[in-house]
Amino acid sequence: MSILLTTLNARYTHASLGLRYLLANMGALQEQTHLQEFVIGAKATEIVERILSYSPKIVGFGIYIWNVEETTKVVAMLKRVAPHVAVVLGGPEVSHETNEQEIVKLADHVVTGWGEVTFPKLCGEILHGPKPLMKVHAGVQPPINDIKLPYSLYSDDDIKNRTLYVEASRGCPFKCEFCLSALDKTAWPFALDNFLAEMESLYQRGARLFKFVDRTFNLNIKTSLKIMQFFLDKLEANPDDPVYAHFELVPDHLPDALKEGISKFPPGALQFEIGIQSFNPAVQTLVSRRQDNQKAADNIRWLTTQSHAHMHVDLIAGLPGETVESFAEGFNKLWALEPHEIQFGILKRLRGTPIIRHTQEFGMVYDPYAPYTILANRDIDFATMQRLVRFARYWDLVANSGRFGHTLPVLLGDAPFQRFMAFADWLYANTDATHRIALERLVAMVARYLQTQGMDKADAEALLASDYAGAKPKAMETPAPKRQARRLAA
Length: 490
Ligand code: SF4
Description:
Elements: E1 3-9, H1 17-24, E2 33-39, H2 44-52, E3 58-62, H3 68-81, E4 86-90, H4 102-106, E5 109-112, H5 118-128, E6 136-138, H6 156-161, E7 164-166, E8 169-171, E9 187-189, H7 192-204, E10 209-212, H8 221-237, E11 244-249, H9 256-263, E12 270-277, H10 281-286, H11 293-306, E13 310-317, H12 324-336, E14 341-346, E15 365-366, E16 374-376, H13 382-400, H14 407-412, H15 416-431, H16 439-452, H17 457-468, H18 482-488
Parallel strand pairs: 1-2, 1-3, 3-4, 4-5, 5-6, 7-10, 10-11, 11-12, 12-13, 13-14
Antiparallel strand pairs: 8-9, 15-16
Bound molecules: iron/sulfur cluster.
């Protein structure tokens, strides 16, 4: 074996689409290329031992924000025990501010940006000469339809046990400054018929969960409709073995034709991830995010009331110009629209993103270590930012987990952000923990907190018991069949 492609995925259930793209596009070198994935948390020595068991001449690592620290240790160890093995890095984390990074110093080469053309070319030069002199190679972006699609490289085991990531297009035409996709010039669609033929083949092999990584699924409505029709046809032909699709949407663009398509999906077949990020127009302008807030709110309301889609909506705290009060206002507005989940994110300074232009004026202080989370800014001091971080963590445990369906509305009352913040402060003060709070303990703590707010002990315990017994109110039910629900937890 000459070339090993590898990465540390965030979870076993995440199969790396990027590595499969590289493998599909290795050309004459494909036969001597092998793919081996790991999961973060594995011991570096064991990873290195496993890598070397293939006796590779070249190891290509996929580097992402979630694995850069652990992969740095792996590369350092690998180069110590096997200095003759050429290490080539690629992926978004090493595609910008490349030369400043420790992992880059340890590696032999880096391919920035798109890897499908440049990585195989570089491997050919390392194996057969002429010896590449440059360390950093800017990835050549080919016409999108010159790229071989990787879907046949999902194994039967991947299809059975892992989330299948797919993309009908790459890139994004928008320029939100906190996002890496802001650096794309536009979005490039893959030829739709080819793409759908690959989806058909995955479906015939048993795939039932498709997670689209397209940054904006609803950019081109004609394409969106055709893709949705593909899934509707499958659902109609095979209702007892339903297929499930996940898409990312821009919230203010939902023409009637798309709504009509969405409304045809039965419960448990469709999930949307929708980025609101901020409802504050001044903040949106500062970070160059174009969003019609009224349309976005109307569309979320329409989706929650008129469709069966499961809705996961993102907000980001810590953006320049966003105060705790303005964030709270946006949070409460979003809560009132009743999405199934609110993903409360804390701003991260992704390498290469244009948001750095605000660093000085807004006093943006970021953690120097991945994932480069904001620690403080002009409007939110460090202590308050930590309270928001805990809010986000507890929100996942209590609200997004769906385990407190009856209790949550009581806990939040008519001021969801303010009341949950007070609860988060109390919970932290009384547990000193944000992780490893066992469910039973959490239930007991919520019951205790409700009593501090004046609720009768018996009433609080009965309320919690209704959730703990597993009875969810209608709005919180996950209609996906068990197998899909399990996969969705991935
Ligand atoms: S946040 Fe979404 S819409 Fe904005 S640039 Fe990134 S992918 Fe595009």
